[in-house]
Amino acid sequence: MIKTIEWTDQGVRMIDQRKLPAVEEYPVFRTYAEVAEAIRSMVIRGAPAIGVAAAMGVALGLRDSKAKHVEELRKDFEQITSTLASTRPTAINLFWAIERMKRLFDELVRDGADRRSIAGHLIEEALTIQAEDIENNKRMGRFGQDLLPDSGTILTHCNAGALATAGYGTALGVIRAAVENGKRLRVVAGETRPFLQGARLTAWELWKDDIDVRVISDNMAGTFMHQGLIDAVIVGADRIAANGDVANKIGTYPLSVLAKQHEIPFYVAAPISTLDLKIPDGSHIPIEQRDATEVTHIGGVRIVPDGVSVFNPAFDVTPNKFVTAIITERGVALPPYEESLRKLSVGGPAGRPDAEKDS
Ligand code: MRU
Questions:
Q1: CATH code at 89?
Q2: How many domains does the chain have?
Q3: pTM > 0.85
């Protein structure tokens, strides 16, 4: 399995996703500030992977804190978490992971634990978050693969694979599970301008796994659907509102509209940690605006005339009416999502019989 992210005594090692597929490099980020910068600059990306990186960043920062007493340690903790929280606003897994680390920190301080033991427990917690993510993806895969045809072509967007998680992937995890189960699937990966996660990352990891993958430019999807060449669409998510509206990589929304028009099922695969049930609908999801150079340049070469402005929203919101089902590690949610997501979030039945399979 690809090692997206790893804890080491020297710091957090990550595969540098900005350089793939040309160069496979695993730099070590030695401070929490370096980890934060790695998240911001997309060395590591994908909502669940960002969450794991943030948890490891918190643990690293605390381990290396020079604080002499607990009040100083708390100040450091706040500085560390606010730096990490300021990196990418849309992926809720970032805030979920920081919150989980904070709960444990508060508990340990309350219990009078010393600095060394607090740091030790936080490192363990970050490793648990990482291990749980892989486990969750495999469970998601077992639920989701049932929804895919025995043979056919699946369109995906961006990268919701091993590289976007601690391993195995969400949307690509479902595809992996289906292939492992003997289904004969071909994947069509939209290139995903401007950062090209589809062309560079999805193509790379599926190719490494010997899964049949073809890349298309984003504007080809409609034609392929019209020609009857796509049997299902499956994507990941950065945040899912209580009503099932889904924020994911820019370009997901138009695919969902096209899928509806062509009567093709449109699936979203995401862990429970991607649910944001505090917000009623997608209009409350903060959309990250990224640097203009991602649009004006490709591979360091300017393609937009100098002096011309661009837009670069990193995510869009797909309304729940275009989402056929949401696949999680606790089962598959079907519309109406207010009800099915709420049930899943408290560990209840998933709204379809498959949920019982994963007891
Ligand atoms: O900007 P990115 O590359 O972090 O965006 C990633 C996505 O949009 C993924 O589809 C999403 O995070 C789900 S990853 C399992």
A1: 1.20.120.420
A2: 2
A3: yes
